[in-house]
Design the sequence.
């Protein structure tokens, strides 16, 4: 009997008809059975038997889900449970040495045993993922980027606490926001989180070659250059750090720096604009090798990651050089030209929810507008708390006009920068032109702010626009 099975498996290997490109990672078993049927490794009767066995397993799983009370559930629940069941079968099949071996075992094995082994494999992945998370969290970067910190401190822990190997094994990404350079969205469940954390670890380990304050300064400079609040944007830190680290070498610096001065930018910009595509790729190749040598990078996973990303970087750099837009990838040190509002309206530490609610309650019963403004300036220091105040029904009608009249030009510039963020970011901000148009406002305060701006003379608008363009407080 053993010899017969061995001969049958060997025969499958010899046929080797399975086209691996047709196999889907997130529907591995289903795509494998379809491919086995297409290549005549399995006939219809065997496929039907396997499907019937899966349906019987689903009945048992539904009974388990309802604590033995019923074999009937809502359609969407049944579909979810079946996906969870198939995830375990996929885990088993993916653990086989080849697709042919998986087909053989699905054909000759007991489906219930296969399912149990798949659940065990899923549990093993889950244990490995928890251990990897603890390691990644311990070595995380000390940076002020919300998506990075929230993913590690909240999203991943929520997944680990709520993941259900039996009933929802296929659930995965959840509220993970931080973007990776390479993120395999073709897989699901704990295997996706495991893959995500593996790449997260590689990117973080690379960035740990640089000091946290240097990375934070780079993020600040990026925010200033792009006219955005970098803290709340979905920015990949590895990409930003890698780019500037390589570009700083190409600008003539010693490997290991992230900062690029304005004069170095102009020199590099001129140099790259004169090079051919092949010349730029050669420059990048040399700079990357210098960086690898400088940091003594030997981990094969990191080196593979770097060399996988390098062609993407080269392609982008060549395109930007040819289109005279290198300022969108070369982040210069903006510290010398940095301008911040000298008053209270800037990005600062937000107040606690209880204090914010108390302030809102106080403002709603104050009639005198000067007293309201005084309470706001005393009670909050964050621009985003101020925006929340304006969206909390604390002002009515003409009170908005009085509020805006009581703000400094620099503060009006900040509000204009927020309202016209797109135009400001792409260098097309023209307040005199914008206020003459019927721009749609999302919030009530924005409608009143537009009306306030329309009443200002051209010189005043030009000054507000100038300060909005120079302002660098969105950090």
Sequence:
């Amino acid at each position: 009997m053993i010899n017969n099975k061995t001969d049958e498996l060997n025969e499958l290997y010899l046929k080797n008809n399975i086209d691996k490109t047709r196999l889907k990672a997130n529907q591995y078993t289903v795509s494998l059975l379809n491919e086995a049927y297409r290549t005549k490794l399995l006939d219809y009767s065997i496929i039907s038997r396997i499907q019937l066995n899966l349906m019987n397993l689903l009945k048992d799983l539904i009974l388990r889900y309802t604590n033995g009370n019923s074999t009937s559930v809502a359609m969407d629940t049944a579909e979810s449970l079946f996906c969870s069941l198939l995830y375990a079968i996929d885990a088993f099949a993916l653990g086989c040495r080849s697709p042919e071996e998986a087909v053989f075992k699905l054909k000759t094995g007991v489906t219930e045993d296969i399912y149990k082994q798949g659940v065990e494999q899923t549990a093993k992945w889950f244990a490995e993922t928890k251990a990897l998370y603890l390691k990644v969290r311990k070595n995380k970067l000390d940076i002020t980027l919300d998506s990075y910190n929230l993913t590690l401190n909240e999203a991943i822990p929520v997944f680990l606490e709520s993941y259900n190997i039996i009933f929802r094994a296929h659930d995965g990404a959840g509220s993970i926001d931080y973007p990776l350079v390479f993120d395999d969205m073709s897989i699901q469940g704990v295997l996706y989180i495991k893959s995500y954390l593996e790449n997260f670890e590689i990117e973080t380990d690379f960035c740990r070659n640089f000091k946290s304050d240097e990375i934070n300064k780079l993020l600040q400079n990026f925010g200033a250059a792009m006219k955005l609040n970098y803290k709340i944007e979905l920015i990949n830190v590895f990409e930003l750090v890698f780019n500037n680290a390589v570009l700083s070498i190409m600008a003539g610096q010693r490997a290991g720096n992230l900062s690029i001065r304005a004069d170095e930018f102009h020199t590099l910009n001129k140099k790259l604009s004169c090079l051919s595509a092949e010349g730029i790729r050669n420059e990048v190749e040399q700079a990357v090798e210098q960086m690898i040598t400088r940091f003594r990078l030997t981990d094969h996973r990191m080196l593979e990651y770097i060399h996988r990303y390098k062609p993407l970087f080269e392609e982008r750099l060549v395109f930007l050089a040819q289109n005279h837009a290198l300022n969108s990838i070369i982040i210069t040190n903006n510290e010398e030209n940095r301008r911040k509002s000298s008053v209270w309206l800037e990005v600062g530490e937000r107040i606690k929810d209880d204090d914010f609610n108390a302030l809102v309650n106080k403002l709603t019963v104050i009639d005198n507008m000067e007293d309201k403004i005084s309470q706001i300036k005393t009670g909050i220091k964050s621009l985003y708390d101020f925006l929340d105040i304006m969206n909390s029904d604390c002002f009515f009608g003409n009170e908005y006009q009085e509020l805006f009249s009581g703000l400094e030009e620099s503060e009006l510039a900040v509000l204009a920068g927020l309202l016209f963020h797109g135009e400001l970011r792409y260098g097309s901000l023209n307040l005199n032109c914008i206020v003459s148009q019927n721009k749609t406002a999302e919030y009530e305060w924005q409608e009143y702010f537009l009306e306030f701006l329309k009443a200002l003379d051209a010189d005043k608008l030009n000054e507000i626009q100038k300060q909005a363009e120079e302002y660098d407080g969105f950090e």
Remarks:
- Residues 336-343 have pLDDT under 50 and may be disordered.
